[in-house]
Write a structure and sequence with these properties.
Strand content: 15-25%
Strand order of the largest sheet: 1-2
Shape: globular
Number of domains: 2
Number of strands: 4
Order of helices and strands: EHEHEEH
Number of helices: 3
Radius of gyration: 14 Å
Length: 88
């Protein structure tokens, strides 16, 4: 699992430590290039919307949900369900 945001690498390290996470990679998109590619950039501000994307082994997007600035409802269950459904 990879998370990408405009936050700094230091911010990502602190987030991982604060929440005791493991097995997750957080990448920095400080200029918003990745956000723009996936349609998650904000049109006026240097921030990105929260977009959940699952990509299969052939690099096809099999799930995409734009929640604006909100968390995905039932995040873990929703994503694992979509992984099971789309990536046998």
């Amino acid at each position: 699992m990879i998370g990408i945001s405009r936050d700094s690498a230091e911010s990502h390290r602190a987030f991982i430590a604060r929440h005791g996470l493991s097995g997750i990679t957080l990448l920095t998109d400080d200029k918003g290039a990745v956000a723009k590619i996936y349609g998650a950039d904000h049109s006026l501000l240097p921030i990105s919307r929260r977009v959940y994307i699952l990509v299969d082994k052939n690099r096809n997007i099999v799930y995409k949900k734009d929640t604006g600035f909100d968390l995905l409802k039932n995040q873990t269950q929703t994503l694992t369900g979509e992984i099971d459904r789309n990536m046998p």
